[in-house]
Amino acid sequence: ITKIIEDFYGNPKVLTRSKIERYIDLAQSEGARVSNVRRMLFIRRLMENGMLLDLSDIEIPTLIMWGESNKWASPEHASKWAEQMPNATLVTYPAYGHVLMEEG
């Protein structure tokens, strides 16, 4: 499981033992299994549709922040999503991965 968690990060060196333990605790918490299955089903539907969603109705200003070293979801997806939203701004971070909010 540590290898999976490391893949979330653009720079796995910032991953501490306490963060790994926190991810494990969250994965084992009540309701996590059902939540994870639902999330995987949603992701499968997204992948079957080329990771496209109809986001054209989102008109409020939206900031999309994306790690360019994201191994879980390509930056191409963020670009496609930003193109669909009339008031979206996409900011990418070269050194960050899927959990850029923890890396920065």
Rg over C-alpha atoms, rounded to the nearest angstrom? 15 Å
Topology as a string of helices (H) and strands (E)? HHHEHEH
Low-confidence stretches: none
Number of domains: 1
- Number of DSSP strands? 2
Overall mean pLDDT stands at: 89
Largest sheet: 2 strands, parallel
Shape: globular
Query: What is the structural class?
Result: alpha+beta
Q: What portion of residues is helical?
A: 40-55%
**Treating each run of at least 4 consecutive H or I residues as one helix, how many helices?**
5
Strand content: 5-15%
End-to-end distance: 23 Å
Spatial ordering of strands, largest sheet: 1-2
Question: What does the model show?
Answer:
The structure is a single chain. This protein has a two-stranded parallel sheet with strand order 1-2. The chain is α+β, with helices and mostly antiparallel strands. The chain has one domain. The two termini are 23 Å apart. Helix 4 links the parallel strand 1 and strand 2. It is built from five helices and two strands, in the order H-H-H-E-H-E-H. The longest helix has 17 residues.
